[in-house]
Design goal:
Length: 265
Amino acid sequence: MTLEKIRVVMDKEFDEIMKNRMILMTLLFMPLVFAVIMPISLVAPAVYSPDHFGSGNGTFMGGASGSGVTSQDSLIVFFMNAVMPFFMLMPGVLPTVIASYSIIGEKKNRTLEPLLAAPVTVYDILIGKALSAIIPALLTTWVSALLFFAISEAIVYSGLHRLIAPDPSVWGIGLLVLAPLLAFLGIMVALIISSRVNDPRVAQQISVVFIIPIMALFIGQVSGFLLLSVQVILILAVVLLVIDALVLRFARSMFDREEILTRWK
């Protein structure tokens, strides 16, 4: 496995991505929806109608009267933190669209055979394809997160004439550490599935199962059962790092280039 060969695979994959309008629209549409809809549906009601959530003048999820932090502040921060699993979900889901196409689509377009016959290792192919899908997904996710905060803070300032923000360390570690690890896991699962089936839609549908654990994080966050903190995120990151390494080895064993070349129809 060499960086030069990985870069060659990545360049080829980026060219394919730029030619596919469906992939480009998916990469842009989903992050923009999250960045715009979430502040309007969650943050705006907490700013303009906090009584609907029963916050009143009491406490909510850690807000304490007399501590300088009002219950409304706690409510707003709670909703901002509650959507963090969705932003961790995006770099885990968006690459599956690219990965599902990158093998099956190339096979149908007769562009996969030259890559499999080239003097590159399976690890070069897997890592190159993974990074070419992860990088644009992470970039769009980070831009979407910044847009989410910009809209949220604009709503907060227009209603309360001050800024309220969640703990930046939680979001920073979540988006810069946990999200890439989730993205790598998602892309490896999609590549494994894509190497065994002949229809990209089937690969995408099977890969949707990957969403379930992330949705569990969101439900746990909203219900207050599992609040994401720096300690929780770091523990999850260590666990994911181990899982990613195991899944990469499994993907290497499942990605039989000779079978793909000779038996796919």
